[in-house]
Design a protein that fits this description.
InterPro entries: GBBH-like_N, GBBH-like_N_sf. This protein is an alpha+beta fold. Helix content is about 25%, strand content about 35%. The mean pLDDT is about 95. Bound molecules: zinc ion.
């Protein structure tokens, strides 16, 4: 599939973001796993260096979404209650992470 066209988005700040793709697949991404999977350069660098991306999440604290804004047709920019706000989650990234079993659950 072309994985990238999204027909529905639902954000529950303290729980999850649900994304419906144009092949009628809806995926529910939990806030904790989403925060840890942040695709921004800073977080990628930390993961590659074996460092913590979000100490708060790893301590088991609830890190919620404080703001969400579409980044054109490309994806979504999420701000987090741990102060992090540079991550833009491309729809293709989210779908591939689900298809490969790394992120999300079918809703
Ligand atoms: Zn990040």
């Amino acid at each position: 599939m072309s994985a990238g066209d999204v027909v529905g988005i639902e954000v529950e700040r303290d729980s999850h973001m649900a994304v419906t793709f144009d092949d009628d697949v809806t995926v529910r991404y939990g806030v904790g796993e989403l925060r840890l999977a942040c695709p921004c350069a800073t977080c990628v660098g930390r993961r590659n260096a074996g460092e913590s991306v979000s100490p708060a999440v790893e301590r088991g604290e609830l890190v919620s979404i404080t703001d969400a804004a579409l980044a054109g047709a490309f994806g979504i920019n999420l701000d987090w209650s741990d102060g992090h706000r540079t991550g833009i989650y491309a729809w293709t990234y989210l779908r591939e992470a689900f298809d490969t079993g790394r992120l999300g659950t079918a809703a």
